[in-house]
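Question: Hello, beginner here. Any chance you could explain the protein record under this note? Any guidance would be welcome.
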Amino acid sequence: MLKDNLRKYREQKGFSQEQLADEVHVVRQTVSKWERGKSVPDASMLVELTRALGVTAADLLGESVVWAQSQEELALEAGLLKERVSQKDRSERIYRWSVAALAVACAVVLAVSVVYALANEAGKFASGFEHGFKLEGAWISEQPNQWSTYLSFGFADDEGGVWQLAHPDGGTPPVNGYFRKTGDPNVYVLLNEEGQEVGWAHVAFTSSFGGNIDGLAYVQYQDTCYQVRRMDDFVDHYAQDYSSVWGVMADRAREGAAEGIEGSGDWLKEWFAE
């Protein structure tokens, strides 16, 4: 090939790239591009190279036949070489553009998916503020250097249900009671077993974005305010001596309410059992 032959005859002549560049009146970088196949000399420059190196055009071009040294024939060969280089450059450009287009398409699909998920979650938040976030389930309050506090809320009907506050490691029995809705869909009144008001619960938000349960609520019980985060949908319930814990799902509670049990069902009796 031209680039290999040019290097070979230049070195046989004892020329450096700089010296050959001076002989043909170009800069060294031009000679370097020729020898790396990044560009090819035109017909007139090919004539200068043959003169400087003392070889024929056929020697430089690597052809097995002897070409006439006319300007027209040299121009034809140089044009063919340029076309080959141009075709290679076009192929490389098409490949690069194809890769870039694929990357852009993937980025667009990812962006649309993220926007859809965020829009869906934003819709859930808007609905939660208007109609109420989910209170039912198990919540936990974790304070540094203090026992964890667990709170559970289980609906018995559409207006409210039962709740429990427990300190499993604190040595005091759990507290049970009822809760009722208020005019604010995210605020509930807490009552003790005798029906006396003892506090309130305010749900800031709940979410299951990406399948991960999350949420934040504030619960005031007597003189203590707890900031709690949501753990799961199950309503965990501890026995008075913490000897056992069991979960009541929402469907079970609503089945009892639908049958007209209204507080006398077995699961409510278990909730308040000593």
User: Anything to note?
Assistant: Residues 26 and 207 are 70 Å apart (CA to CA).
